[in-house]
């Protein structure tokens, strides 16, 4: 796997897993498979036979959810009978996501739900959950033609569908992967330039095609490109016409005619050794935009390999602000300083990317809280990874630390900044997770601080088995019902390496929530009322409590919430 492919996979991980650091595997093998779920699927109040219902493990940790995408979680399927009834049996206790698979139908939005749609349920051992019903409706349709400036149809053109409210304020994208090559094929035009978006919930939408500028994972390979254009054919979003969709209706003639293609440009420069100033050949140069507040540069171009003079040339660069960097293979002892540049209406030349020899961090691994020989003997198979964040944007990179038979580790190519470790379980499942990081015998609660010139040899990574379970029940004080608003429970382990890190669990219709695969320790639970628009700030804290979690016994807690504290 070369540096470009490795970068692409790592960026997908970052996009889907946000900032999660500790990753653990589910402890399913020890659980009894005695629970079951039954329910009925209806469409417009009539039984819906032959509908597939899918059930998957739902993890509160985003990295564990990502592992499921890579095939480490099984999906259980059932099909409704002539009365629209389904049954799924032989389940272990835990947290699940259940959803009907009916692309042309609309699944009602659940409290706190997002994409993809579905319902979170928490089930106990030997429990039978009944009446887990779904009342589906016929989805709406938007269809039209996409043509170029000469009126010719555009084939295999990606579309973006953006829900908007009554004031045309953006909501969450209907499909966040639409237009990236990872999304639903219905977001592409056919050989006639015709598109048909179906299964849409009632609401208002903006339909657009073309490139918006600095979108991540958008690899442009054409000399000219189509700027993002909204129906009916405007590049100014404020002048776009929203499409009204009703249940079961079809909005036709939602055409978009693009203007003349915009020109792309070139960006070129050299990669040099920061110490000697000498050019570096055969380096994997790339460029990208800074993603959000993460200080992480996400690749946008296809990159280029430097020649014997250390020179690189980026072709087909869309106007925008970028950072140029070098991608390195695993085990490289170097890192690059991202070089900012901006493309507006001309080619950019003279860029210089500096490569520096990285620092080394080494030390020992220990496991706390267990003397199980099988676990201790598996240390050499654990994939210990690390990320480093500096004050400046950083190139996408996941550092690996091989663990020796003597329990030592070594990481090379480290740049100055804040270093955090985690156990990578995407391809090597394990119950172990990082409990804390120490240096010179002192805990590093805010990550390992790496200063220029450091050579750290006394780091200690303390691992522990993460198999704790915390099960809870919400009760309402006074007037109000849990159906009145979407709620979420966050669990933050006190003393966590990353103070901003917590796991989230949705609350099901019965007011239950569950956290699994937790490290032992004290956790602060926070119950919040979610805003209808998750991008809004100011979610209300309705309850807060501390609870102890161990690997030996399942923790149970009841939290009382006062819905009168909800902010409007």
**Strand-pairing-aware structural class:** mainly beta
Largest sheet: 9 strands, mixed
Silhouette: flat
CATH architecture designation of the largest domain: Sandwich
Tell me the β content: over 45%
CATH superfamily of the largest domain: Carboxypeptidase-like, regulatory domain
Q: pLDDT average, as an integer?
A: 81
The DSSP helix count reads 3
Oligomer: single chain
Strand order of the largest sheet: 36-35-38-30-33-32-31-34-37
Number of domains: 5
CATH top level label of the largest domain: Mainly Beta
Please give the alpha-carbon distance between the first and last residues.
51 Å
The number of strands is 45
- Poorly predicted regions: 1-29, 65-72, 533-537
What is the CATH fold-level name of the largest domain? Immunoglobulin-like
Radius of gyration in whole Å, from Cα?
26 Å
- Measured as a percent range, the helix fraction is under 10%
Describe the protein in words.
This protein is mainly β. The chain folds into five domains: 31-137, Immunoglobulins (Immunoglobulin-like), CATH 2.60.40.10; 140-263, Carboxypeptidase-like, regulatory domain (Immunoglobulin-like); 268-350, Transthyretin/hydroxyisourate hydrolase domain (Immunoglobulin-like, Sandwich), CATH 2.60.40.180; 359-465, Immunoglobulin-like, CATH 2.60.40; 468-565, Carboxypeptidase-like, regulatory domain (Immunoglobulin-like), CATH 2.60.40. The chain is 5% helix and 47% strand. Strand 22 (284-291) and strand 23 form a beta hairpin. Mean pLDDT is 81; it is low at 1-29, 65-72 and 533-537.
Give the helices and strands, then pairings.
Elements: H1 3-17, E1 33-43, E2 46-47, E3 52-57, H2 62-72, E4 75-79, E5 85-92, E6 94-101, E7 105-106, E8 119-123, E9 128-129, E10 134-138, E11 140-147, E12 159-164, E13 194-200, E14 203-209, E15 224-225, E16 229-230, E17 243-245, E18 250-251, E19 256-257, E20 262-263, E21 265-273, E22 284-291, E23 296-299, E24 304-305, E25 311-317, E26 320-327, E27 334-337, E28 339-343, E29 348-357, E30 359-368, H3 373-376, E31 383-389, E32 399-403, E33 408-414, E34 417-424, E35 432-439, E36 442-443, E37 448-450, E38 455-465, E39 468-477, E40 487-493, E41 503-506, E42 512-518, E43 521-529, E44 540-549, E45 555-562
Parallel strand pairs: 1-9, 1-10, 11-18, 11-19, 21-29, 30-38, 39-45
Antiparallel strand pairs: 1-2, 1-5, 3-4, 3-6, 6-8, 7-10, 11-13, 12-14, 14-16, 14-17, 15-20, 21-25, 22-23, 22-24, 22-26, 26-28, 27-29, 30-33, 31-32, 31-34, 32-33, 34-37, 35-36, 35-38, 39-42, 40-41, 40-43, 43-44
């Amino acid at each position: 796997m070369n540096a470009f492919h490795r970068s692409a996979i790592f960026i997908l991980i970052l996009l889907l897993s946000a900032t999660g650091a500790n990753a653990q595997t589910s402890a399913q093998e020890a659980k009894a498979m005695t629970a079951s779920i039954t329910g009925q699927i209806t469409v417009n109040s009539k039984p819906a036979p032959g509908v597939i219902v899918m059930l998957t493990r739902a993890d509160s940790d985003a990295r564990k959810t990502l592992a499921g995408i890579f095939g480490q979680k099984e999906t259980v399927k059932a099909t409704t009978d002539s009365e629209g009834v389904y049954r799924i049996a032989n389940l272990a206790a835990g947290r699940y996501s259940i959803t009907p698979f009916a692309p042309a139908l609309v699944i009602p939005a659940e409290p706190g739900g997002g994409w993809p749609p579905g319902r979170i349920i928490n089930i106990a051992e030997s429990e039978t959950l009944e009446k887990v019903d779904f009342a589906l409706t016929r989805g709406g349709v938007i269809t039209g033609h996409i043509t170029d400036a000469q009126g010719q149809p555009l084939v295999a053109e990606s579309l973006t569908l953006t829900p908007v409210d009554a004031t045309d304020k953006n909501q969450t994208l209907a499909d966040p992967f639409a237009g990236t090559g990872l999304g639903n094929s219905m977001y592409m035009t056919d050989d006639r330039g015709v598109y048909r978006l179906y299964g849409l919930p009632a609401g208002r939408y903006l339909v657009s095609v073309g490139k918006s500028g600095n979108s991540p994972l958008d690899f442009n390979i054409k000399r000219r490109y189509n700027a993002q254009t909204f129906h009916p054919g405007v590049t100014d979003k404020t002048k776009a016409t929203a499409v009204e969709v009703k249940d079961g209706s079809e909005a036709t003639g939602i055409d978009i005619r693009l203007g003349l293609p915009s020109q792309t440009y070139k960006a070129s420069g050299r990669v040099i050794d920061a110490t000697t100033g000498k050019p570096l050949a055969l380096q994997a140069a790339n460029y990208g935009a800074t993603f959000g507040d993460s200080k992480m540069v996400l690749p946008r171009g296809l990159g280029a390999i430097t020649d014997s003079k250390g020179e690189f040339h980026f072709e087909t660069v869309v106007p925008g602000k970028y950072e140029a960097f070098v991608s390195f293979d695993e085990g490289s002892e170097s890192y690059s300083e991202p070089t900012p540049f901006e493309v507006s209406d001309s080619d950019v030349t003279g860029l210089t990317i500096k490569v520096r020899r990285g620092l080394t961090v080494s030390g020992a691994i220990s496991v706390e809280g267990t003397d199980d020989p099988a676990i201790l003997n598996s240390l050499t198979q654990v994939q210990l990874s690390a990320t480093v964040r500096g004050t400046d944007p950083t190139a996408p990179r996941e550092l690996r630390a091989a663990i020796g038979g003597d329990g030592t580790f070594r990481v090379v190519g480290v740049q100055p900044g804040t270093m955090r470790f985690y156990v990578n379980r995407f391809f090597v499942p394990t119950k172990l997770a990082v409990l804390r990081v120490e240096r010179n015998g002192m805990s590093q609660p805010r990550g390992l601080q790496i200063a220029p010139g450091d050579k750290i040899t006394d780091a200690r990574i303390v691992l522990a088995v993460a198999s704790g379970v915390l099960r809870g029940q919400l009760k309402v004080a006074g007037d109000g019902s849990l159906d009145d608003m979407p709620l979420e429970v966050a669990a933050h382990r006190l003393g966590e390496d990353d103070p901003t890190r917590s796991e989230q669990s949705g609350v099901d219709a019965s007011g239950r929530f569950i956290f699994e695969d937790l490290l032992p320790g004290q956790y602060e639970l926070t119950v919040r009322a979610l805003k209808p628009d998750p991008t809004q700030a100011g979610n209300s804290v309705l309850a807060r409590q501390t609870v102890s979690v161990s690997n030996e016994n399942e923790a149970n807690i009841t939290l009382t919430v006062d819905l009168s504290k909800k902010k409007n």
